[in-house]
Amino acid sequence: MSEKSNVDFSSAYRLLHPMHTVLVSCVDKAGKPNVLPLAWAMPTSRDPAMVAISVAPSRYSHALIEETSEFVINLPTVDIIKETLACGRTSGKNRDKFAETGLTPLPARKVKAPIVKECIAHIECKLHSRFKTGDHTIFVGEIVEAYANKGVFTDTYDIDKAQMLYHLGGNVFATLDPKRYMP
Questions:
Q1: What is the pLDDT of residues 173-183, one digit of tens each?
Q2: For the stretch 47-72, what's the b/e string if a residue is b when 16 or more beta carbons lie within 10 angstroms of its beta carbon?
């Protein structure tokens, strides 16, 4: 067995990385959209279908999700890594991240929050519940609509076609090698 090294509690969560990177879009009551990159997103239930995102209360998107009770999880690829990073470096409170990054907000099918056109998949959510966990709030969304670009997803992603972004920590990202391993 290999020798083990202690990991500081403040970075222990990174033992769970790489994590799927997502772009969460939301909107204020007046219709102004915002977008926030996150790596803390996960499924929580199949029936009913629910997902959770973890957002710091200091983030502008946190207030928008609380205000409108909805959000969209958009799945970016390596093709928009620079735009994804840029969305996390500024606040949408006084800036238009869509205009500044060149990302395109499009109407969602069932919620007022937009989808991000450049992403390959979208999960529209209505807020089911929320709870505080230390320095973040977990927003649990009930999925009201989900769709992906044709040819990219059929029960699982075709990783030869979809080079998804995975967050390793800080400004470091990775993609999946298209090799598949089966026991």
A1: 888 876 666 67
A2: eeebbbbbbeeebbbbbbbeebebbb
